[in-house]
């Protein structure tokens, strides 16, 4: 997922900020070869969920969609302990 452009505005930046996540952290997680943990279609919009890490090693869950050629982060948050352990076990098995 190299050379991707992200779609940020006050709405999605404000939403992830409520979860104590920065846009940089969300982008790092998506660009860092995350684990694909889900796909859904909500109101006709495709959404992908990922577990991954920031450059500092913080594990996050990030949900994205695409808007044209851009990646739009819909939400990003600290995953549950179970999800973190699942991610770490997956990573250890690589």
Structure description:
- The chain is an alpha+beta fold and 94 residues long.
- It has one domain (5-92).
- It contains 3 helices and 5 strands, in the order E-H-H-E-E-E-E-H.
- It has a 5-stranded mixed β-sheet with strand order 1-5-4-3-2.
- The radius of gyration is 13 Å and the shape is globular.
Low-pLDDT residue intervals, each spanning 5 or more residues: none
Written as H for each helix and E for each strand, in order along the chain, the element string is EHHEEEEH
The side-by-side strand order for the widest beta sheet comes to: 1-5-4-3-2
Give the biggest beta sheet. 5 strands, mixed
Strand coverage percent = 35-45%
Helix content: 25-40%
How would you state the average pLDDT, rounded?
95
Query: Oligomeric form of this entry?
Result: single chain
Q: How many H/I helices? A: 3
Distance between the termini: 18 Å
Total domain modules: 1
Measured on Cα atoms, how large is the radius of gyration?
Answer: 13 Å
The rough form would be described as globular
Global structural class? alpha+beta
Number of E strands: 5
Features:
five-stranded mixed β-sheet; about 90 residues; single chain; 5 strands
Short description:
By secondary structure, the protein is of the alpha+beta class. Helices cover 32% and strands 38% of the residues. A 5-stranded mixed β-sheet has the order 1-5-4-3-2.
SSE layout and pairing:
Blueprint: E1 5-6, H1 10-18, H2 23-31, E2 35-42, E3 45-53, E4 59-67, E5 70-77, H3 81-92
């Amino acid at each position: 997922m190299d050379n991707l452009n992200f779609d940020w505005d006050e709405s999605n930046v404000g939403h992830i900020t409520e979860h104590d996540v920065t846009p940089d952290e969300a982008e790092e997680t998506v660009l860092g070869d995350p684990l694909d943990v889900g796909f859904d279609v909500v109101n006709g919009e495709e959404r992908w969920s990922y577990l991954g890490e920031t450059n500092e090693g913080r594990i996050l869950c990030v949900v994205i969609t695409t808007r044209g050629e851009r990646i739009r982060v819909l939400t990003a948050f600290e995953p549950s302990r179970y999800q973190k352990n699942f991610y770490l076990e997956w990573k250890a098995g690589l």
